[in-house]
Design goal:
By secondary structure, the protein is an alpha+beta fold. It has two domains: 132 residues, 2-Layer Sandwich (Phosphorylase Kinase, domain 1); 241 residues, Transferase(Phosphotransferase), domain 1 (Orthogonal Bundle). Helices cover 27% and strands 13% of the residues. The strands form five sheets. The protein has a five-stranded antiparallel sheet with strand order 1-2-3-7-6. α5 runs antiparallel to α8. The chain is globular. The two termini are 41 Å apart.
Length: 440
């Protein structure tokens, strides 16, 4: 029998030859982070002559996320694009909102996938750590209010698009630094901003919630980092709603206010058969502050899959007002907003639209489009650290040294970086237990 001829081979060869290599299109400034998913680099766009673009809609800095190929032992196998990577790419390509991170393009080279995102210099976790460890003072009210308003604004856009984020946490909420805005910048994909704009990042766990192809639970049994996971998820809910994201916003709100996580529990790990365990410690941390729920404030509680385990938890009184007074002295409109985001019953929990309409946002000081507008003179946040990478982005010449990267201010060396766009992560002791990566 004559050998089979692949009729598409010639076409694929021509197509691959026509692709522009990543290093031909972007000048790599340095390495930001790595993880089980791959690596993230900081880069600038180049023109067709290889010169760095300094003006126009393509100018600016980008974060390039390179996915690792799948491995079987020591052998690299090319098995296509993972389901989560497909989901992340598909959703990001459809998103166009000022408070959601922008995916500029997706590139394929040497069977590796590269996602090119707009670059954000800061994130909520980096800012929290800077206030708690360096400044030793709270985030001022105008900045805090602007952060929460913009976060809710981006979340409303996702929810109106029938998308659940499912992994909202401080490390995934990015904030742009001030950059000059050229007069020619009219393209919506331009990375230029006035600074202080909140960007929701990392849609890798996001799912369409309207007529999904399969039940949400069957695809991802564990969603949301443990400290920000809603009680219905902790009690084993198979069906859940946008309310899980709103609970996470309440946790982020409290963390920005207190400069530490409000519900800092230990995560029980999956067993050898990948069964999801009862998260007793995390629920206990929630009950210690909000009190133990009942059928009175959570109708349907008795129907939750983990209700029998729940009955073994110690009964607690609601002490949230005491928690809040220790930090703000008076129970104001912000307290009222937070209590509505922390409703146990998902049906009663305030949604993003309702939260944006809350009276707190109509009180002075009003939220601003530039969250940093009211920062005192001389107060700024450290830039993201960029270093020399031991492994280049592609098989092109090595990455330039860190001297080509943006200035790194004192304190920035303490941060690990988020797997999505180089968002700063916590120093040891502040990071919640990591969920098993969806790329593993």
């Amino acid at each position: 029998m004559p050998p089979q001829v692949d009729p598409m081979r010639a076409y694929r060869a021509r197509r691959d030859a026509a692709r522009i290599p990543v290093n031909a299109k972007y000048h790599i400034l340095g390495f930001i982070s790595s993880g089980t998913y791959g690596r993230v680099y900081k880069a600038q766009a180049k023109d067709l002559n290889g010169n760095i673009i300094t003006d126009g809609p393509s100018a600016g800095v980008y974060a390039i996320k390179k996915f690792k190929p799948d491995k079987e032992g020591e052998v690299i196998t090319y098995t296509g694009i993972s389901q989560s990577a497909c989901r992340e790419i598909a959703l990001n390509r459809e998103m166009r909102h000022e408070n959601v991170i922008v995916l500029r393009e997706v590139m394929l080279e040497d069977k590796s996938i590269f996602m090119v995102f707009e670059y954000a210099e800061h994130d909520f976790l980096q800012i929290i750590h800077h206030h708690s460890q360096s400044l030793h003072q709270a985030i001022i009210l105008p900045v805090l209010k602007s952060f929460i308003f913009q976060l809710l604004n981006g979340l409303l856009y996702l929810h109106n698009s029938h998308i659940l984020h499912r992994d909202l946490k401080p490390a995934n909420i990015l904030v742009t630094a001030a950059r000059p805005m050229p007069a020619t910048s009219v393209n919506e994909l331009s990375p230029y901003t006035e600074g202080g704009v909140v960007k929701i990042g990392d849609l890798g766990l996001a799912r369409l919630a309207r007529a999904p192809l399969q039940p949400l639970f069957s695809g991802d049994k564990v969603v949301v980092t443990i400290w920000y996971r809603a009680p219905e998820l902790l009690l084993g809910a198979r069906h859940y709603t946008k309310a899980i994201d709103c609970w996470a916003v309440g946790c982020i709100f409290a963390e920005l206010l207190a400069l530490r996580p409000i519900f800092k529990g230990e995560e029980a790990k999956l067993d050898a058969k990948k069964n999801v365990p009862f998260q007793r410690d995390q629920l206990t941390k929630i009950f210690d502050v909000l009190g133990t729920p009942s059928e009175h404030n959570w109708p349907g509680l008795t129907q939750m899959p983990e209700y029998k385990n729940f009955l073994m938890c110690e009964r607690q009184e609601n002490k949230f007002s005491q928690w809040y007074r220790q930090r703000c002295r008076t129970l104001d409109a912000a307290y009222n907003l937070m209590t509505q985001l922390f409703e146990y019953d998902p049906l009663r929990r305030l949604d993003a639209r309702g939260a944006l309409a809350h009276p707190w946002f109509r009180e002075e000081p009003l939220p601003t489009a530039n969250a940093f507008a009211h920062l005192p003179d001389g107060v700024s946040y450290p830039l993201r650290r960029v270093t020399q990478d031991e492994a280049p982005l592609t098989n092109a010449p090595p990455v330039p040294t860190a001297s080509h990267a943006a200035e790194s201010r004192p304190g920035s060396g303490s941060y690990a970086f988020n797997r999505m766009t180089g968002a700063a992560g916590p120093v040891p002791g502040h990071q919640p237990p990591r969920k098993k990566s969806r790329m593993e």
